[in-house]
Amino acid sequence: MISFPTRDELLEAVSAYLREQLLPRLSGSERYQAQVAVKALEVVARDLALGTRSDAEARERLLALLGGSPSQSLEQLDAELCARLRDGRIRPDQPALLAHLRATTRARLAIDNPGFAFACPSPDRAADGTQSDGA
Amino acid sequence: MDAQELAAKLARAWRERLGSEVAIENMKPLTAGASASTWRLEAAGPHGAEPLVLQLYAGGENFGFALNKAVQARVQSAAHRAGIPTPPVVLVVGPEDGLPEGFITPWLAGETLGKKIAADPALAAARKVLPAQCAQALARIHGLEPADFPDLALRPADLQLAELAGLHRGYGQCLPVFEAAIAWLRAHRPAEAAPRVVHGDFRNGNWIVDASGLRAVLDWELAHLGDPMEDLGWLCMRSWRFGRDELAAGGIARRREFLAHYAAAAGAAPDPAAVRYWEIFAALKWGVICQWFASQYLGGTVRELERAVIGRRVSETEAVLLDLLEGHGD
Fold first, then answer.
1. What's the domain count of chain A?
2. Which residues contact A133 (CB under 8 A, 6 or more apart)?
């Protein structure tokens, strides 16, 4: 593996260039595009750090859920799960299914958008019956 | 086509269609999307300059079903005539004018950015009256006579669900959360009621709001006939709240408060199970739209970075779907 710099360090160097040198000189739509680019590099960095492990864990869970052959890839197992959901062999409210989907979605959000609120008690319901201040 | 050529063609269409001479001036592009561009302009005649908005088809692909600009103009005109707060259509243009399909409406001052409508301190007073005003506008849309809208297709839940499932599976990315949602939606379809006019995209990005509140409802391109609860479910989707997560109804009102305003205006309380069904449907639809944006980049149709990046927002819609399916509601 080439390590001087590592791929993570190189990625961070590109990201730092965009943030520190390019962004301050841009305005309007160009600035917005560059901000989107910075966000995209952050997703890539988290994917590099977490993706392999979260895929392996998803594969383990799917093997337990579907009882497939240990040689099956994550893609094959995902396709099998989708097929069973489509033809009704697995029901969408099955607790073991939902536990797997929740764990998978949590792992995907950790890469794509770690700040996204997931499974919080609903503030809307908690405050039901009270009036909105409207402001 | 540059602004000068566009202005000359618009002035000619104006003369031919409306029988008066105007100069089209001060053309400013407002938005330039892949499927439509919007301009602010002025029609200057003997009585002064009238500020207007032009929407033009831009040649790109729309997501799934969408009305073309000529039909959209007819629907908006009919809604305006029936008393819905939406701008009247002043002029319709098209290939006979050497232009893409499009139409012109009066310019209304006000805010159209959803984020500002939900959060800008300058609109705090407007937000006090928006819940009732928007619920009333929506109930009046749903009270329109379907026979007055012969352009609108009947789009019941099962038809739309089959379309979404087909689009999703066409992208070749297996998403078990989406398949679980599709299976749930198949099993829980609400009873079919008499079809009503459905706006199809009723949310804070398609309103004009000023200090007095709601001035107009815009963007009828997804209008159809169907279950009016579809509009309530779409409005309650998390993406339009802009950080005001406690205000589930479009970032402007608590869900229960909005449904009470709607019930008062419509004369009947919405069935919460039907609203929940359409909220889940809305989250799936937004998820498939995210996939569609990414597919446009990956397929080479639209080379915009943002389209590629939005594909990674699919996981947000999966989280929303799971929360809804598991009754965290939100």
1. 1
2. none
